[in-house]
């Protein structure tokens, strides 16, 4: 089987029609725990369903197994990784050029923050990674990132590393020129594009780039 170039992980957080709209022809779909049930209930066949599946009933678990190409399950207690990290690690092993995480945000802030940190692993592995839900899109920038048209009008920048230097913005309402952001700074919150595209350049450190809408 050929290696996929783009993988979408459907995790067990908030999911909806917006997540289905992310799917393109040729995408490799991975269902993480209850995210696998979301896929099969919408007529999509996961290449892999992975997790401890402690959030599904025995009947739902049977449904997932019947409609997945491959299933990997684990003990819900005796494990070192979250279900989402297990799915993300598999995606990195496939050498995907792009990884999209849907259902990675929800009511558990600890899981949401951990999933944002997974983007760092993707960045280090050379994969383009982002988290998306109904009102947010999250990615990282450690060199240069170009943003095009989007359904998310607001753009916020927060440091992932203790200090990010040499931040230069072009195409934004509030430009920056060789600026520095440190943990705790809110200078980068709620910018907007004023051109068809905008560029974020970074000299050192890493930014969390959040595109959002109310």
What does this structure look like?
There is one protein chain. The protein is an alpha/beta fold. The longest helix is centred in the middle third of the chain and has 17 residues, at 109-125. The chain starts with 5 loop residues before the first strand and ends with a strand. Helix content is 23%, strand content 31%. Helix 4 runs parallel beside helix 5. The model has no long low-confidence stretch (mean pLDDT 95). The strands form two sheets. It has a ten-stranded mixed beta sheet. It is elongated and about 55 Å long.
Question: What would the keywords be for this entry?
Answer:
four-stranded antiparallel beta sheet, 5 helices, elongated, alpha/beta, about 210 residues
Note the total helix count. 5
Strands, count: 14
Helix content: 10-25%
Mean pLDDT: 95
Largest β sheet strand count, sense and barrel closure: 10 strands, mixed
Describe the secondary-structure layout.
Layout: E1 6-10, H1 17-20, E2 28-32, H2 34-41, E3 48-51, H3 58-66, E4 71-73, H4 83-93, E5 98-102, H5 109-125, E6 128-132, E7 136-141, E8 144-147, E9 154-159, E10 163-170, E11 179-182, E12 191-192, E13 198-201, E14 207-212
Parallel strand pairs: 1-2, 1-5, 2-3, 3-4, 5-6
Antiparallel strand pairs: 6-7, 7-14, 8-13, 9-12, 9-14, 10-11, 10-13
Helix pairs in contact: 4-5
């Amino acid at each position: 089987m050929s290696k996929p170039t783009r993988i979408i992980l459907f995790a067990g957080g908030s999911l909806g029609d917006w997540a289905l709209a992310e799917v393109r022809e040729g995408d490799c779909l991975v269902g993480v725990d209850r995210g696998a049930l979301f896929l099969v209930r919408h007529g999509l066949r996961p290449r892999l369903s992975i997790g401890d599946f402690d959030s599904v009933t025995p009947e739902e678990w049977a449904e997932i197994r019947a409609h997945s190409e491959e299933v990997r399950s684990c003990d819900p207690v005796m494990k070192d990784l979250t279900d989402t990290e297990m799915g993300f690690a598999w995606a990195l092993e496939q050498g995907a050029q792009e990884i999209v995480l849907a259902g990675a945000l929800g009511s558990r802030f600890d899981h949401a923050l951990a999933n944002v940190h997974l983007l760092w692993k993707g960045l280090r592995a050379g994969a383009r990674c982002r988290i998306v839900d109904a009102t947010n899109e999250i990615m990282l920038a450690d060199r240069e990132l170009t943003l095009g048209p989007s359904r998310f009008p607001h753009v916020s920048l927060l440091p992932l590393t203790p200090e990010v230097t040499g931040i230069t913005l072009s195409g934004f309402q509030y430009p920056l020129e060789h600026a520095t952001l440190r943990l705790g700074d809110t200078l980068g919150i709620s910018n907007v594009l004023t051109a068809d595209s905008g560029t974020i350049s970074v000299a050192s450190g890493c930014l969390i780039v959040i595109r959002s809408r109310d």
